[in-house]
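Quick one, tokens below:
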């Protein structure tokens, strides 16, 4: 009998807090009887904080402080995070990640996307760069190329299903973790997630 519980991990490549959460969440599969399911979820940054050229002073201060916290966390773990110079769409990165996941190669692909985007070594909207990362991870990018060429037929509907699942789980931001119907939002909520797993007697 499989007594493994599922953790839903709603994520975005363009979220620095998601990048910080990536390794700790993956590590839970070693310490607890869980499996992590990665589900893409997009947050409209322009709607939340305004576009960069017209962002209010209050929102500029808020974003600046968030990156201050991000880099504090990152320094503690030896992770490089440089704030992006503009607001990026991660849509193509999501598509490539889905295709890598279909080949059981999501994690090496995702790790490279996170590391390179946040060190400013990846244009996350560049389909050719993402296809090259897929190849480096050992995945065939043919399906991804098909998704780009036929976006409305396959890629967008698949991504919309992820967003619909997020809506049914009442997700509003990333990173969000869902276990046994309970939500934990944010990198700094992982300790509470672990307590939940321990209370469910899932520790190995």
């Amino acid at each position: 009998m499989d007594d493994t519980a599922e953790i839903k991990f709603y994520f975005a490549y363009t979220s620095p807090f998601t990048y910080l959460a990536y390794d700790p969440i993956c590590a839970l599969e070693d310490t607890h009887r869980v499996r992590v399911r990665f589900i893409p979820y997009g947050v409209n940054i322009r709607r939340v904080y305004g576009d960069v050229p017209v962002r209010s002073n209050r929102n500029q201060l808020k974003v600046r402080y968030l990156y201050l916290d991000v880099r504090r966390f990152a320094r503690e773990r030896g992770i490089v995070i440089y704030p992006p110079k503009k607001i990026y769409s991660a849509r193509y990165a999501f598509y490539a990640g889905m295709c890598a996941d279909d080949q059981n190669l999501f994690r090496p692909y995702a790790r490279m996307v996170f590391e390179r985007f946040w060190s400013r070594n990846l244009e996350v909207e560049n389909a050719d760069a993402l296809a090259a990362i897929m190849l480096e991870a050992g995945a065939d990018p043919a399906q991804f190329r098909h998704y780009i060429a036929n976006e409305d037929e396959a890629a967008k509907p698949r991504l919309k299903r992820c967003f619909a699942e997020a809506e049914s789980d009442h997700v509003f931001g990333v990173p969000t973790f869902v276990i046994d119907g309970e939500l934990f939002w944010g990198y700094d909520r992982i300790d509470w997630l672990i307590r939940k797993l321990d209370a469910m007697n899932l520790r190995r």
